[in-house]
Amino acid sequence: MNSTSLRFVRQVGMRRSHWATQRPLYRATSADKGNRRAIGAAYSSLSRPSSEGKSVIITGSSRGIGKAIALRLAADGYNVCINDVSANQGGCDKVAEEIRRMGRRACVAVADVTKRDEVKDMIETSVRELGPLHTMIANAGIVQVQHVLELSDEDFHRMFAVNVFGVQNCLSEAAKQLISQGNCRPDQPGKLIAASSIVGFKAFPLLPHYSASKWAVRGLVQAYAMELAKNNITANSYAPGIVESAMWDLIDAAVAKRTGLDPSEVTENMAHEMTAIDRVSVPEDVAKLVSFLASRDSDFVTGQTQLVDGGIIFT
């Protein structure tokens, strides 16, 4: 055996030994075959299975993308726990009432996602009011426009507290709840979903710490997907583009101040220059993708960050 062949054998051996520690040699069992039959039966329909009676928590859902997601999932059959911070409770109450008028159950759980104890209380409220949890959507987030050299430690800490630690708190506590319930199966997996962004694929100028936080969400989701697959839990995230929302209003105002553009022109110009479909997105565009991620149609999708940006980032 020459030196090249020997190196190849060693490399293969190292790869095998690494994965052997992660995943023992697989041997099919009768239970595995039963699971495959159950999954096959579930997939026998060509239409999307209903989410009737399932429950979901959606953070930051008093307005904007979160509200659109809540209304869409209620239309899909979910009972919905609406969450936001106390300053937005009025919006939460209105969204919950709108969902009840649709014939679904809804509750409000005011909580700051940066505080793990409040996240635990939010989940307890949802389970008490709506029954066992099936899906967590960590949608809450903040944005700040700032030059990279003007960022303070406080700016960076605050961004990561909400957009990264807040997501971690929600996914972690929801996963523990799903596991303790014992109702996640191969043909009915629990679902963890988080908000990333197009800037989680390519950073934008003046959004350095926001971009970094959304890259972090992608990595976190991949870690959850790998570690919780054995518990029949999937983890994915969605990456919106330029969306007509309160968050983009903040970006418009800050960019306009720095560039001299009219605030009303910033988003339209960006969408025209960057988006293949050549329009500004609306929250309902994002809600449609999240509807898929929260449905049975996505049961074999995990560890992914799916773009919904009208053609800005191509993968």
TrEMBL record:
Q: Does the keyword Chaperone apply?
A: no
Q: Does DNA-binding appear among the keywords?
A: no
State the source organism's domain of life.
Answer: Eukaryota
GO biological-process terms attached to the record: fatty acid biosynthetic process
Picking any one GO molecular function of the record gives: quinone binding
What Pfam families has UniProt attached to this entry? adh_short (PF00106)
Q: Per UniProt, which keywords does this protein have? A: NADP
Please name the InterPro entries in this protein's record. Answer: NAD(P)-bd_dom_sf, Sc_DH/Rdtase_CS, SDR_fam
Q: Which family does it belong to?
A: Belongs to the short-chain dehydrogenases/reductases (SDR) family.
| Protein name (record) | Uncharacterized protein
